[in-house]
Amino acid sequence: MIDTKKYFLYTYRLLIMLSFIYNVNAQTYELGCFLGKSLFHGDIGYNNAEYSILDSKPVLGFQFKRNLNHHFTLGLSIYRGSVAADDADSFDVFSLERNLHFQSKITEFGLIGELNFRPYLSRDPEYNHTPFIFSGITRFFFNPQSKHSDGNWYSLRPLGTEGQSSDAEPSRKLYDLHGISIPFGVGYKFNIYDFITLNFNVSWRITFTDYIDDVSKTYVDQSVSDELTYQLANQSETEFAHGFQRGNPYNNDKYGFFGVTILYSIKDPPKGCSNMKIND
User: Mean pLDDT, to the nearest integer, of 90-96?
Assistant: First the structure.
């Protein structure tokens, strides 16, 4: 299991250390609003991640960033949105037969570092656009739900759809509804007017849980659970036997976002030596 505190401190120190590789010409803060959509790839739905865009849901986010120099940015982010997937959309024969679906709210808090490929600083007409890559560490919260034939959506974790905390599967514990993820992504940003920057980006999150969609291991016998749990755990016309593979526990779920961020730049007051220029 990942040591959250140690990884967070390592990431923070690395990003700060990298920020001193280049000489600082000027610095700015940026406040931004992200408007976009979600991506999800797990056990339910499309087998290929590139198709996940077809199940994307709206996402809203906010960012507070510090441009440490022309090449490095360190920021905090908050995202709120939903992810969803449906086996009915899959091209895989087993997934179609399994016939599961889910939706979940996603709330994420992140520490993100950006690396610009070109010298860049908002409010600087000479260095006002660049492609970039980014990564960091995030804490996210989720709650998978499934729709019953009665028309209501039920939270799946308390039901123990794979026999969690039951006598039949005593080694399976209820999974946490939060986790750590490692984001990675690419983007392009350009200054459209003095203090306004547009940032287009797409990213994925590597997670350490296989339960964002509530599917990971095997089916359990109907006698292990109540009627509601069994109906939500097995929505196929086929009655799968106890121990039959339901998901793939060796591939953790991942999610991501794509969209545009509108950033407002707050420039630091001059500190002298303003005629210094940075070489490409």
Answer: 92
Rounded to the nearest 10°, the torsion over CA 153, 50, 33, 115 is 140
Residue 274 or residue 106, greater confidence: 106
Query: Where are the strands (E) in the chain, listed by range?
Result: 28-41, 58-67, 72-86, 101-116, 129-142, 145-147, 153-155, 178-193, 196-207, 254-267
Q: 3-state class of 229 per DSSP?
A: helix
Q: What is the dihedral of CA 239, 242, 247, 248, to 10 degrees?
A: -150
Quick check: 263 and 235 in contact, CB under 8 A?
no
Q: What is the mean pLDDT of residues 202-228?
A: 94
Sign of CA dihedral 207, 61, 129, 268: negative
Distances from the Cα of 225 to the Cα of 87, 180, 211, angstroms:
23, 30, 19
Return the closest-CA partner of residue 217 out of 178, 175, 273: 175
Alpha-carbon separation of residue 83 from 3, 42, 115, 210, 213 (angstroms): 26, 11, 28, 14, 9
CB 151 within 8 A of CB 190: no
Residues 6+ apart with CB under 8 A from 243: 218, 219
pTM: 0.85
Q: What percent of the chain has pLDDT over 90?
A: 67
Helix (H, G, I), strand (E, B) or coil at 23: coil
Average pLDDT over residues 249-278: 79
Count the residues in the chain.
Answer: 280
Minimum mean pLDDT among 3-17, 39-53, 108-122, 142-156: which range? 3-17
